[in-house]
């Protein structure tokens, strides 16, 4: 009873004051992730049930990532041109359709093609969702909002992963169909409850250049962040591809894998809110660097796990804490670096880093695992984490973080509104 008022105050400070539309978006995200089975178990399904090799499973995951890569820029531009809502609805309905089709598909070529289409539609939701949050949530509350959205993703992920391992023992087709159904329900929530949030087009002035994709790619500070994100995303992608294959080779069952990987979501559900409060007003570059080290070293320790599900659980705990620090902090930074009327394009290019990782990560990881072994693969992950940490530290110094005049200053501290909302200077 003594802790109840404190707990209520913590919840109010963490979740209070956000717009109603955000909470409907949060609900739709939760519903979708509660049924997100296919991506997590696709590699295990192809190798253990269908009998394909680890390299083919890596190829399919890479084609899924290639589809994501192709959609990142397209969806970003559409988000700015036709609107957030229609782009999001089209992407969700396409994802549901092709996920269901994938469950019935047979043959190497057919599976690869459908996996590409699932990846294309699935990733097309990213720029729209991120832009909606940036549109409706004030700048000072965005890190908190992205943190809560990340919390919903992992609440659903943790529950679905644990349950999916049990469902998979009775057949994988049910997983594909439930995944498709949850995506349809998500689209229904968006259609009924989320209005279009795209800002009105600005009045163009003769001395103000139009913000196009070229402007985004010439923004050196933003592209540096995208490059570092790609490096860490390559590591994180191993959690749903080569990690499953390596654990299977070590004799870990699908049920044990589901429980171990589900720990990722469970820890985020338990720790996201208190850790988000702890990192507020701390150096953003320091938090990103620390997160990179935790992610890299967490995956690196997988080389020592052998057949112990408990040791795998320890490694997941370490890189999950890194994720908790990393994702909402980074999303808040990306939103601040994105001009209001080009948020879709900026979010699309940022999403491109994850898309490229989902394409390159499984392929490179599968080749390393098959030809060089788990030790080399997980050691490479540790090196990537250290390089990314050094990059964020250097970026923080170069953008004036120490002096307090850059967007890497502190989590939850934003630049003045006029500076945050205008296009970045040409670099």
Cα(first) to Cα(last) distance is: 56 Å
Which residues sit in consecutive blocks of at least 5 with pLDDT less than 50? 401-405, 412-427
**Overall number of strands:** 0
Question: Which class do the helix and strand fractions yield?
Answer: mainly alpha
Number of helices: 18
In which range does the helix fraction lie? over 70%
Shape: globular
**Could you name the CATH homologous superfamily?**
MFS general substrate transporter like domains
* Rg (C-alpha, Å): 21 Å
Label the CATH architecture. Up-down Bundle
CATH topology: Growth Hormone, Chain: A
Q: What average pLDDT do the residues reach?
A: 78
- N-to-C SSE string, H for helix and E for strand: HHHHHHHHHHHHHHHHHH
| Portion in beta strands | under 5%
Biggest sheet record: none
> How many domains comprise the coordinates?
1
Helices and strands in order, then pairings?
Elements: H1 4-15, H2 20-34, H3 38-49, H4 54-81, H5 84-104, H6 108-123, H7 125-136, H8 142-168, H9 173-193, H10 213-218, H11 220-236, H12 242-249, H13 254-279, H14 284-300, H15 309-337, H16 343-371, H17 374-398, H18 417-421
TL;DR?
It contains 18 helices and no strands. The protein has 427 residues and is mainly alpha-helical.
